[in-house]
């Protein structure tokens, strides 16, 4: 599988360690930066580029997922979710990694590098990558509603305020 990675200064060490782990596990890793430590860098472009990479690959039929890092993971998740079609989930446990795939068909996860050990992050990422989407009707329906809102600004029959 192809894994797109984006971070900022807070997640740079995590990113380097996790990229090595992912490559050793047989994944192709695309690093969207940064390449060097800059305590004043900004995460949005790195995370948006990782999310765009995931979407381009998925649209081309390439199996791909993304992982974005920062101090808390919150801003990184928000940045990734700005890309049309991305469903980025903030992950803080194996359970949230599992449910992000099973229930939400998340294609990007965000992890707070200042919130977890490298070992924990590796566990979350491995769980996320290994878990398939469940395709349960209720989850498919909910994801379709999100996509409809993203495309049209409403969800037919669901009383979305206009």
Distance between the termini: 40 Å
Strand segment count: 5
User: Rg from C-alpha positions?
Assistant: 15 Å
Low-confidence stretches: none
Strand order of the largest sheet: 2-1-3-5-4
Mean pLDDT, all residues: 95
Q: Which structural category fits the helices and strands?
A: alpha/beta
Main beta sheet = 5 strands, parallel
Number of discrete helical segments: 6
Tell me the strand percentage band: 5-15%
Q: Which H/E pattern describes the elements?
A: EHEHEHEHEHH
What form results from the Cα inertia axes?
globular
Helix content: 40-55%
Give a brief rundown of this model:
By secondary structure, the protein is of the alpha/beta class.
Structure description:
Helices cover 46% and strands 15% of the residues. By secondary structure, it is of the alpha/beta class. Strands 2-1-3-5-4 form a five-stranded parallel sheet, with helices on both faces. α2 packs across α3 and α4 runs parallel beside α5. It is globular and about 50 Å long. The mean pLDDT is 95.
List the defining traits of the structure above.
alpha/beta; 5 strands; 15% strand
List the helices and strands and how they pair.
Layout: E1 2-6, H1 12-24, E2 28-31, H2 43-59, E3 64-70, H3 74-80, E4 88-90, H4 94-102, E5 108-112, H5 118-130, H6 137-152
Parallel strand pairs: 1-2, 1-3, 3-5, 4-5
């Amino acid at each position: 599988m192809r894994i797109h990675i984006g971070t900022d200064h807070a997640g740079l060490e995590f990113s380097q360690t996790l990229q090595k782990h992912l490559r050793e596990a047989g994944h192709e890793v695309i690093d969207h930066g940064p390449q060097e430590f800059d305590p004043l860098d900004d995460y949005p472009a790195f995370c948006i580029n990782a999310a765009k990479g995931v979407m381009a690959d998925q649209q081309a039929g390439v199996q791909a997922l993304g992982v974005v890092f920062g101090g808390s993971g919150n801003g990184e998740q928000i940045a990734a979710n700005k890309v049309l079609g991305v469903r980025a989930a903030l992950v803080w446990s194996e359970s949230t990694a599992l449910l992000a795939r099973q229930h939400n068909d998340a294609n990007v996860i965000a992890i707070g590098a200042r919130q977890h050990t490298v070992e924990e992050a590796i566990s979350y990422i491995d769980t996320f990558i290994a878990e398939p989407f469940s395709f349960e009707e209720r989850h498919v329906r909910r994801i379709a509603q999100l996509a409809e809102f993203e495309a049209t600004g409403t969800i037919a029959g669901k009383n979305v305020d206009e």
